[in-house]
Amino acid sequence: MLNEKQNFLETIRRDGKPDHLCNSFTAFKVLGGDPVFQYVRGNRIRGTNSYDRWGTYITFPEDQPAAVPLVTPENQVIQDIENWKEYVKVPDLRANCSQGWEAVQKQKAEAPKDCLTMTVMGTGIFEQMHMLMTFEDTLCNLLLYPDETHELIEAITEYRLEYMKLIVENLHPDVILSHDDFGSKTSLFMKPEVWREFFKEPYRRLYRYLHDNNVIVMHHSDSYCEPIAMDMAEIGVDIWQGVLPTNNIPAITQELDGRMALMGGIDSSIDREDVTEEEIRKETQRALKEYGELPHFNPCMTYGGPGTIYPQVEEIIIDEINRYNQKHFHV
After folding, report:
1. What DSSP assignment string belongs to 203-244?
2. Three-class SS state of 177
3. How many whole angstroms separate alpha carbon 101 and alpha carbon 98?
4. Residues 29, 12: contact at Cβ < 8 Å?
5. What is the pLDDT along the chain (331 residues), one digit of tens a residue?
6. Angle between helical axes of 125-132 and 135-144 (0-180°, round to 10)
7. For the chain, does the N or the C end have fewer beta carbons within 10 angstroms?
8. What element of type H or E holds 320?
């Protein structure tokens, strides 16, 4: 019987031979609190409002599960895309994050040998753009000011590459979970050809660097990304994590033919205070029935990392997947 690490690696290999379904994020040890994460997101404290290193207003109400950017026409960082360089001050990660890695390095050294180590990198290129200006301005500028938008994307890509270099140089995890949501539940935020024009090559560059340094690329996008799934595989995404059930997961799997693994499929609508155990098991069973026999599939909640808002939800999901594995694979 393969352990969770071995089974996950077999699942994502094109010709791999896993002996059971991977189970949520149980194959991973997330390394938390690295200096870059603390520097760029350390202001996100429950019950407070603040500005991040880019100047974006961040609000984290006491009764909410996470912090969110609150961008308005009045407070957006970029007031004029044609003169974006006058407004944007890219944080200097190398100058501020070269020290203080000992604690997270200790986490890696103490990680179980049967787990893959993982670092989570939030706020991808597109997300960083719409944290600097309103969502409407972000989308309009792709069409109205393509040259300036390409320049801004290049600056954000350089920043994100520096982030990756610091992680690799100081920690070198097995996997980097890179976040960027490209769409809503039912559609991309832009036409596929627009995504390809602006985001495909920057991400190819980032993920080539990770592959050149033997880091597995997991890209989180809990979105409808079916029209660009093949593009994601082409630019080096090893695992698309967060794949919503509104995507045609069986059809995507067939088209990909092992070029990229899929991770998700369990609808996050079950993560509620009033949810019943029966509802959680029913949704998990639905996902397992529809996707459990697909190659290169890892069932999990579609959030961008382990855990649920209500902890018992994830516990029941994991238990239900364990039951499936016991029944179908005797493990």
Report:
1. HHHHHHHHHHTT-EEEEE--S--GGGHHHHHHTT-SEEEEE-
2. strand
3. 8
4. no
5. 999 999 999 999 999 999 999 999 999 999 999 999 999 998 999 999 999 999 999 999 998 888 999 999 999 999 999 999 999 999 999 999 999 999 999 999 999 999 999 999 999 999 999 999 999 999 999 999 999 999 999 999 999 999 999 999 999 999 999 999 999 999 999 999 999 999 999 999 999 999 999 999 999 999 999 999 999 999 999 999 999 999 999 999 999 999 999 999 999 999 999 999 999 999 999 999 999 999 999 999 999 999 999 999 999 999 999 999 999 998 8
6. 110
7. N
8. helix 311-329
Joined tokens for residue 80: 């004029």
Residue appearing with tokens 């994020």: 25
Q: What is d(CA 302, CA 287) in angstroms, rounded to the nearest whole number?
A: 12
Four-residue CA torsion sign, 33, 37, 39, 41: negative
CA geometry: angle 207, 135, 179, nearest 5 deg: 25
* Closest C-alpha to 158, from 92, 114, 224, 76: 92
Angstrom CA distances, 30 to 74, 145, 202, 228, stand at 37, 39, 26, 28
Q: Are 170 and 112 in contact, with CB atoms under 8 Å apart?
A: no
